[in-house]
Write a structure and sequence with these properties.
alpha+beta; 2 domains; 5-stranded antiparallel beta sheet; 5 strands
Length: about 400
């Protein structure tokens, strides 16, 4: 893999640190630094006396959009972990990039950061340059900027920004293993694979809703055709009315699990994304915890407190991962059942569609546009059934993968 290209590298020097190194810092709820490790101390260029008690933004670089921090603080404030690519500034003006995993802890927040190197990292550097430039030029509110980043996640095919960052963390961990000559970690690969299934569900649900919305215009077309072909209340008119009534029932069921706030697909995505991000976070915490076994004394930092905190957080993140997975499995099973129910309801629509085809054949050459309308129904019905079957298959994959992970991990 080629080294990432920094769009502003001609003006900036990048502070060196290794792929084997992890940054650690902990702050209070105001973001004031309480503790950090030697990697953070060395790379930042600040003395301990300058770091401890200082706001964490002492290392913030203005090229990291403020919207990134709005997303981070929003997640942490709600008690959820979150990740982000962050460009930081060294005391002497140099810069360094990290992928940061941030988690709430008692009395504040904790961050473990690793060196990023993937093509996705390149993508985010380009996005950050454009977005931070807009923030300054247009005086964008951080919430507007955060909205741009969330929209980016959706545009890239992800159900949420958390899911996007779970994917990013999995990619960065896998790339880091490769650069350090480590064998591929099965947990990380599982994270990546499950995330792919999750995002395919999101894509299928969007396409399914579009297909069904397009289907809603067809009964109107049938009524227009019927008005030219037969007296009021004729068979084609009756077929179109029956079709409309049945499709409205299905439409309401469909919207309950693929559209609207807190729909069933979103609940699957939210819990699965949380589980996947926690899965990657747990691995980072475990490695960071191991790195605290032999550290030099620093005035103002009680390493026993930091070790205990990390051990507790590692155990809690593991428990939270399993809890989120169990919730995701439950939602995935519910999604499977809802999709199967709608597929059964589609059989009723198929019967009405067949009656329309029979009536079209009876009218023969006088059928006008009825044949073309029924052809449209054939296409949309096939597409909708394929989407439903895909969602059922993917929801089974997600549930099965998470169940297998929990069984394997409990041995």
């Amino acid at each position: 893999m080629t080294a990432p290209t920094d769009l502003s590298k001609s003006q900036e020097n990048e502070a060196p640190f290794g792929f084997d190194e992890l940054f650690y810092s902990r702050t209070d709820k105001r973001g004031v630094i309480i503790a950090g490790n030697e990697v953070f101390h060395r790379v930042s260029g600040f003395d301990w006396s300058e770091l401890l008690g200082a706001p964490h933004k002492i290392v913030r670089h203005p090229d990291t959009p403020r919207g990134v921090f709005r997303i981070l603080w929003s997640a942490l404030g709600a008690g959820h972990p979150m990740g982000a690519y962050v460009k930081n500034r060294v005391r002497n003006g140099d810069i360094y990039w990290v992928f940061a995993v941030l988690m709430p802890v008692d009395g504040g927040y904790l961050s473990v950061r690793l060196k990023p190197s993937t093509q996705l990292f390149d993508r985010f550097r380009e996005v950050y340059v454009k977005l931070s430039t807009r923030e300054r030029a247009e005086r964008l509110d951080p919430e507007v900027s955060a909205g741009e980043l969330r929209a980016l996640a959706l545009a890239e095919g992800f159900s949420s920004y958390t899911s996007y960052m779970a994917f990013a963390l999995g990619q960065e961990l896998a790339a880091r293993d490769a650069r350090l000559g480590r064998p591929a970690d099965p947990r990380t690969q599982r994270l990546i694979d499950m995330n792919k299934s999750l995002e395919r569900v999101t894509q299928e649900q969007t396409k399914l809703l579009r297909s069904f919305e397009a289907l809603q215009s067809i009964p109107n077309n049938m009524r227009i055709v019927a008005s030219r072909l037969e007296p009021s209340g004729g068979p084609v008119s009756a077929i179109s009315e029956n079709y409309k009534a049945s499709s409205l029932v299905i439409s309401e069921r469909l919207r309950s699990f693929v559209a609207g706030r807190d729909n069933l697909c979103d609940r699957v995505s939210r819990q699965a994304a949380r589980a996947l991000f926690l899965l990657g976070s747990n691995r980072v915490l475990k490695e960071m915890n191991a790195g605290f076994r032999d550290v030099a004394a620093v005035e103002g930092i009680d390493w026993n407190v930091e070790r205990n905190l990390l051990r507790e957080l590692e155990a809690r993140s593991y428990a939270d991962t399993r809890d989120a997975m169990m919730r995701a499995v439950g939602h995935a099973e519910e999604l499977f059942r809802a999709s199967a129910e709608i597929r059964r309801l589609m059989l009723g629509l198929d019967t009405i569609r067949v009656l329309g085809r029979v009536e079209c054949g009876r009218m023969r050459d006088s059928s006008g546009g009825l044949s073309a309308t029924i052809d449209q129904l054939d296409i949309f019905h096939a597409d909708i059934k394929n989407r439903l079957e895909s969602i059922m298959r993917l929801s089974e994959e997600i549930g099965s993968s998470m169940n297998q992970f929990m069984r394997a991990d409990s041995r």
